[in-house]
Each structure stands twice: as C-alpha cells, then as structure tokens.
Design goal:
By secondary structure, this protein is of the alpha/beta class. It has one domain: NADH:ubiquinone oxidoreductase Nqo5 subunit (Beta Polymerase, domain 2, 2-Layer Sandwich), CATH 3.30.460.80. 18% of the residues lie in helices and 28% in strands. Strands 1-2-5-4-3 form a five-stranded mixed β-sheet. The longest helix is centred in the last third of the chain and has 12 residues.
Length: 164
C-alpha cells in the first residue's frame, strides 16, 4: 500500500483530492486536519516520514490568467520524505485569503521553523503556534509580502540604513 493510499484509508473525510503523476503522490487535505495527518505520517512505522524536505506556498490570485477561479487564494505545500522507506509525499493545504493561517509543524520537524518563517515573510500566511514567527528574508520594517501576486513591483519601501 502506498503512503497516499494509507493516508486516504485512515483520513478519508479529511482528503479533498489526490493525484499521482510519474510516481509523485499528492494529497490535498482540509486545513484543520494538517496537524493530525502530519503526526500520523511521522509516527506510523510503515510510513516513517522523518524528513520535511520543503514547505512553500502558492498564490493563485491570477491563476491561469484569471480564466480559472479557485475557491481559495493560497496553498501551503509540504514535501515529506522517508529515509528508511525511500518514499515521498506531497501535502497541499488550501488557505483562505481572509484568514491566511495554518498550524505550525515545528513541534514535529524542527526544519519547519525557517520554512514557515519564509512563507510568512513572502506570502503573509501565519502559522499558529510557531515559536518565533518573524521575517527571515526581508528586514522588519518591510511593508507587505513580496511574493503575493498583488504586491506592487514598484512599491517604495522605507530606507533602512546601517546602525552605527
């Protein structure tokens, strides 16, 4: 049984959709189920996803030139890997524009700390329970979130000089 099938079997009501392409398995799940599914992925011996390879986000504001509308604006995308079993799984979590927030996974994978800070910094998606959610790439006075598709590319930012 593949990891995708195992999660579908265990959490069928929490899975929105799945797909497999060239061996890459992807699940889209309800945001409320993220923490419990992530814990299941890590702690189930037959899955043993001990490595959070990447965590990023996607902004669908102008998806396909505005021709296709999604019910949500953002997706948080997690890439998990099991060193022991040599298998991968991608989890996508839809995030609403009005309250862009999901649970933190820092208590399960320490590597989530910087990834979540980067997503907060660039997209403005908050991670509930994160121990130190602050900017990591931009300076603290930076206004807005630079990877949002509605961020004005020519926006002037406050000039911050060196402190002597």
């Amino acid at each position: 049984m593949t990891p995708l099938q195992r999660v579908q079997e265990q959490f069928s009501k929490e899975v929105i959709e799945t797909h497999t392409f060239r061996g890459d398995e992807t699940l889209m799940i309800h945001p409320s189920a993220l923490k419990v599914i992530a814990k299941f992925l890590k702690e189930t011996a037959e899955l043993d996803f001990n490595f959070l390879m990447d965590l990023t986000a996607v902004d669908y504001l102008f998806f396909a030139g505005g021709r296709i509308q999604k019910e949500f604006r953002f997706e948080v995308v997690y890439h998990f890997y099991s060193l022991k079993h040599n298998h991968r799984l991608r989890i996508k979590v839809p995030v609403d524009e009005k309250s862009p927030e999901v649970d933190t996974l820092t208590d399960l994978w320490a590597s989530a700390d910087w990834y979540e800070r980067e997503v907060w910094d660039m997209f403005g998606i908050r991670f509930k329970g994160h121990p130190n959610l602050k900017r990591i790439l931009m300076y603290e006075q930076f206004q807005g979130h630079a990877l949002r598709k509605d961020y004005p590319f020519n926006k002037r930012q406050p000039l911050i000089g060196p402190k002597y």
